[in-house]
Amino acid sequence: MADALSLAASMRATPTEALPAVQSAFSLAHVYLTEAHLLGGLALVVHWDMEDDHRADIIDQLGKVAVTLDADSLRGLQAPWTHPLEGSLHVTLLHGGPDVKVPVPAVPG
Fold first, then answer.
1. Residue 82 in 3-state DSSP?
2. pLDDT tens, residue by residue, 52-93
3. Distance of alpha carbon 12 from alpha carbon 2, whole angstroms
4. Three-class SS of residue 25?
């Protein structure tokens, strides 16, 4: 059985820019997206499955599309690999300036 890992991040993008960028990052990292949800233009939540150890790839690919993982998420992805992982990534979308970040509660699952 796969371990579950919840990741949090932020990205300076509109919802129409964020979804294809995150989808591309996961695809290039060979990590399967199982669901994606935009939450009112404030956040994007994706659910994923990682069969093999592609954690370094997902960190690199998310960085290339300007997704900034929080410190706990980075530590979780850098922990020792034991078996397949599944989880979610909650991306808070930042629009229009540095002080308009709106906290959005994480979606369970």
1. coil
2. 999 999 999 999 999 999 999 999 999 888 888 899 999 999
3. 31
4. helix
**pTM for the full model?**
0.82
Helix-then-strand count for the chain, H and E = 3, 5
Token look-up 């906290």 returns 103
Q: Report the C-alpha gap between 48 and 94 in whole angstroms.
A: 22
Beta bridge partners of 49: 32, 86
In this structure, the number of other CB atoms found within 10 A of the CB of residue 106 comes to: 13
Backbone angles phi, psi at 34, to 5 degrees: -105, -25
Please name every residue paired with 39 in a beta bridge, in sequence order, or none if there are none. Answer: 43
- Residue-wise pLDDT for 6-43, tens only, equals 999 999 998 889 999 999 999 999 999 999 998 877 89
Count of alpha carbons within 13 angstroms of residue 107, beta-carbon side: 18
- pLDDT band, residue 105 (cuts 50/70/90): low
